[in-house]
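Q: My labmate handed me this sequence with no annotations at all. I'd like to see what the chain might look like in three dimensions before we decide whether it's worth expressing. Could you predict it?
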Amino acid sequence: MNQGTLFRQVAENLWVGQYPLSLLGGHQGRVVTVIRLSSTGQLIIHSTGPFTNADVDEITKLGKPGWMVDSMLRHDTFAKEARKMFPNIPYLAPEGFATAAGVDSRPLFPPPAAWAPEVQILLIDGMPKVKEYVFLHVPSRTLVVADLVFNFGHASLWTTFFRKVVMGVKSHPDSARLYPMQIKDRAAYDKSVRRLLTWDFDRIVVGHCEVVETNGKERLKQGLANKGMLPR
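A: Here is what I predict for the chain of 232 residues:
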């Protein structure tokens, strides 16, 4: 799918593109989200993929690339490839990402002033080895996450086994089994998730596989509850 990947429009000024990504033979997929700021026409390219020249052409038809973003420390699989394809725009990521990924990046927080009021970001706090930032595209009421929850669809027997048994992702959306183990400061984590749940969103674009099109907030609560990750 990475040869001239088609970006599907899911809302006004919001597109998603699907890329292949496998772990131990299990297909996880990588979702790249493109947000166009209505105020400037600039694009936020959220998450990176193995971009081809055709992909770059397709993205630039949507608007002027303004920023490329990886929103957590462990989302660096395609960082170097993507940076080569978009070398002249700021690459924003959590502190420590540049060293881990071996690319040049700038701190994601505080976000560029041009993003307000259309795009808000929030650190899921208390997880220092993850440092995941979630995004809210305010006009479309869309939450964009990386690994906070997964939303997998139908797959091969091995991939289904890998997702359910190895990753522990049994419902949709759901967090991976190891994710709550990354919480080192429960009070800080709870505070940030409480704030997240005050946001007005219905759709969730996940970092892997399928978009949660409706009832996103309630489904997110259930997915977090499954792993004991709802605020106490």
